[in-house]
Design brief:
Radius of gyration: 25 Å
Number of strands: 9
Order of helices and strands: HEHEEEEEEEEHHH
Shape: elongated
Distance between the termini: 33 Å
Oligomer: single chain
Number of helices: 5
C-alpha cells in the first residue's frame, strides 16, 4: 500500500515539474529580447522605444521623468491627485485583418502607490474608444519590476484603427514602466485553455469518486482502495498548485499560473478534507461492526 502511494506521488511530482518547466519556458514573457514572431503566442506589432517615451507629454496631474533602468529606458510617472486617472503613453495604428486578441505587455514597478495602478489599453474602433485593464494584476504599495499584461478581445465585425497604451491610477503614487510592447495574439491561450479542460475533467471525476467513496465508506468496504484514490486526488491537487506557483515565480503570465495554482489548491483542499472524513466514516463503520459482533 505504502509502496503504491509512493509510486503514484513520485509520478505526479514528475508531471508537476514537467508542467512547470514547460510552462515557464513557454509563458515567461520574452520582453528583453523579442522580434516579430519570437513570442510564443503571436507576433510583435509595436515596441515603444526611447524615442516614443521621450516624446510623451504628461497631463497636468502627472509628473514624468525618462530614466535609465538597468540600461533600459523607463518612464517614471508620479500622480498626486485623489481621483482615478488614465494616462496614455503611446498610440499604435492598427490595420485589418485583426487577430482574435491583442496583448499589451510591459514591465512595471511602483512606489507608495495607494489605491492601485495597472496597465490600461484603449482600442479605437469606429470613433469609439474601448478599454481593457489588467485588473487581475494590480500594483500597490511598493513593488519591484515585474512583467504584466492586459489583453483585448475582438469580435469578427470589429474594425479597429488604433491602440492607446498606458497606465491607470486609482490613487496617488509613483509608477515606473519600461519595455512596452503590443502583440497580436492567437485566439486561445494553450495553457489557459488546457487548464480549463483538465480541471473540468478532474471536477467531474472527483464528483463521481466522492459519491462512490462515500457509499463504500459508509458500508465499510474497499477501505484501502478508497483511501488510496482519495489521497492520490489530494496529492495531485497539491502538486498542480505547486506547479502554478513555480510558473508564477518563473514570471509566467496570470493566464498560465493562476488557473493551475487555484484549481490545484481547490482540488487538494477538497480531497484532503475528504480523506479525513472518509477515514472517519470507515472508523464509524468498523465501530458499528464491532458493536454488532458484541450483541451476537
Amino acid at each position: 500500500m505504502k509502496t503504491r502511494i509512493a509510486f503514484i506521488t513520485g509520478s505526479l511530482m514528475l508531471c508537476a515539474a514537467a508542467l512547470a518547466n514547460g510552462g515557464g519556458d513557454t509563458w515567461r514573457p520574452q520582453i528583453a529580447e523579442t522580434v516579430s514572431g519570437a513570442f510564443s503566442h503571436g507576433n510583435l506589432l509595436a515596441r515603444i522605444g526611447e524615442a516614443d517615451l521621450t516624446s510623451f507629454e504628461a497631463p497636468d496631474a502627472i509628473e514624468s521623468d525618462l530614466i535609465d533602468s538597468g540600461g533600459i529606458p523607463a518612464l517614471r510617472l508620479t500622480y498626486t491627485g485623489g481621483e482615478s486617472i488614465s494616462v496614455t503613453i503611446a498610440e499604435v495604428p492598427l490595420t485589418a485583418p485583426l487577430p482574435g486578441r491583442l496583448v499589451y505587455e510591459a514591465e512595471m514597478a511602483c512606489e507608495s502607490t495607494a489605491g492601485g495602478a495597472c496597465l490600461e489599453m484603449h482600442v479605437v474602433s469606429g470613433g469609439q474608444a474601448y478599454f481593457s485593464r489588467a485588473l487581475n494584476d494590480r500594483f500597490s504599495g511598493t513593488q519591484a519590476f515585474r512583467p504584466t499584461s492586459a489583453p483585448f478581445f475582438f469580435k469578427d465585425s470589429d474594425q479597429a484603427e488604433a491602440a492607446r497604451l498606458g497606465v491607470r491610477f486609482e490613487g496617488p503614487g509613483t509608477v515606473t514602466i519600461r519595455n512596452l510592447a503590443l502583440w497580436e495574439a492567437d485566439s486561445t491561450w494553450p495553457i489557459g485553455a488546457w487548464a480549463g479542460v483538465v480541471f473540468g475533467i478532474l471536477g467531474a471525476a472527483g464528483g463521481i469518486w466522492g459519491g462512490v467513496a462515500g457509499m463504500l465508506a459508509s458500508r465499510g468496504r474497499g477501505r484501502r482502495g478508497v483511501l488510496a484514490g482519495t489521497a492520490a486526488f489530494a496529492v495531485l491537487g497539491a502538486l498542480m498548485m505547486l506547479a502554478g506557483l513555480i510558473l508564477w515565480s518563473a514570471g509566467a503570465t496570470w493566464d498560465a499560473w493562476y488557473p493551475t495554482a487555484y484549481g490545484g489548491g481547490l482540488i487538494g483542499a477538497i480531497f484532503g478534507i475528504g480523506y479525513i472524513m472518509i477515514r472517519r466514516r470507515y472508523a464509524e463503520a468498523e465501530q458499528r461492526r464491532m458493536e454488532a459482533m458484541d450483541l451476537q
